[in-house]
Design brief:
With 242 residues, the protein is an alpha+beta fold. 18% of the residues lie in helices and 34% in strands. It has two domains: 48 residues, no CATH class; 181 residues, no CATH class. β8 and β9 form a beta hairpin.
Length: 242
């Protein structure tokens, strides 16, 4: 009797394997419990990768909460690679809770995506910034969101845009009263703030503040290359203060 049962189980297993092998695109059949576990694990991994970015308000961002980060070395999409470490310098000092950011303090970032093409003309440059040199505390962890891009002053002079006078001055604190600014920083909005994604002085350039990998700032262009020359400005905000 025991031999008959063993023979029956072996025959059933062989039959099932034969059916699975005959199905197109099927290399094996997993046990239902094991298959369900694998499916649940895959779903969990996929859900973890799809974590949403932090929401950016579509309303005005007060000018006094922005950090003006100045490009000091040429950055271009054709020569940068994902993972490349970069740094900019703060054009003026600001005081945040737990951090005093002095003029010319380093702001550290990473390239998350870079590409350029000439057929058709297209380019992308995505950047994230996560630390700054505070007074007495180098590379202090601080998430910064890029909400605007401005070309160097000479490039702005050759375009229809102009450098807002309020962005040419010296130090200020987050608590300072907002100054009037160029309406082009916030088309159709308040003159006391900027609109996320604003671009001045760059032709065919688009900015998505959190459109890149890991919610980084994504710049795309219909030009062959994106070049941020020395003197270009990235307008940034600390999420907690915007």
């Amino acid at each position: 009797m025991r031999v008959d049962r063993l023979w029956f189980r072996m025959t059933l297993q062989i039959a099932v394997m034969g059916v699975c092998a005959g199905l197109p695109g099927v290399g094996y059949c997993a046990a239902p419990g094991r298959a369900n576990a694998a499916a649940q694990q895959g779903a969990g991994t996929e859900a973890g990768q799809a974590e949403p970015c932090a929401a950016i308000s579509d309303t005005d961002i007060p000018l006094t909460t922005t950090i003006r980060a100045k490009v000091t070395n040429l950055m271009d999409a054709a020569h940068l690679k994902p993972g490349k470490k970069i740094w900019l310098n703060s054009a003026y000092g600001m005081v945040f809770p737990g951090c005093t950011l002095e003029q010319d303090a380093a702001i550290y970032g990473t390239v998350t995506a870079a590409a350029s093409s000439k057929n058709p003309n297209a380019s992308e440059l995505s950047l994230e910034f996560n630390s700054v040199d505070c007074t007495g505390h180098a590379k202090y962890p601080m998430k910064l969101l890029v909400v605007g891009v401005m070309a160097p002053p000479d490039q702005l002079k050759n375009s229809r845009d102009a450098m807002p006078a309020e962005l040419q001055g010296g130090g200020r604190q987050v608590s300072d009263a907002a100054a009037n600014t160029n309406p082009k920083l916030n088309p159709g909005g308040s003159s006391h703030g900027i609109h996320p994604g604003v671009v001045l002085g760059f032709k065919n350039l688009k900015l998505e503040p959190e459109g890149g990998p890991q919610c980084s700032a994504k710049m795309t262009s219909t030009e062959r290359n994106i070049e941020l020359a020395p003197g270009a400005i990235l307008l940034m905000v600390v999420p907690e203060t915007k």
